[in-house]
């Protein structure tokens, strides 16, 4: 069993979940994150830190279509393992909005931002994690 990111993340893209994940199974699209369900160890650390409650067990009925979306896009989007300084620019306006997928989902991978590698290293060290598998750095 694993978790998946569902529609609530679209155009919100808070990254608290990526920061706490001990196995770095989050991947970043232009306006949302996904989980690779094959890498997820179902530790549950990410679910309570998501401010829009967009992370659910893959067994939930509303997760069915999102298992495929998470699986497919985790293969082509870049991995993210840290919390960005700020969420998606219009996150507050899109928080709680329903049916975002048809009109707002963006299949493009996230654009690399200046300072990403440095931010990732600093964030994982703060949590006492390495870059993979939850080992100490």
Secondary-structure class: alpha+beta
Instruction: Tell me the total number of β-strands.
Output: 5
Q: CATH topology, anyone?
A: Alpha-Beta Plaits
Q: What's the CATH class label?
A: Alpha Beta
Stretches with pLDDT under 50, minimum 5 residues = 130-137
> How many helical stretches?
5
- What's the domain count? 1
At CATH level 2, the architecture is 2-Layer Sandwich
Order of helices and strands: EHEEEHEHHH
Q: Helicity level, as a percent range? A: 25-40%
Report mean pLDDT, rounded to a whole number. Answer: 86
Task: Report Rg.
Answer: 14 Å
Q: Mind describing the biggest β-sheet?
A: 3 strands, antiparallel
Q: Cα distance, first to last residue?
A: 28 Å
**Cα shape:** globular
Strand content: 5-15%
Task: Give the strand order of the largest sheet, numbering strands 1, 2, ... along the chain.
Answer: 3-2-5
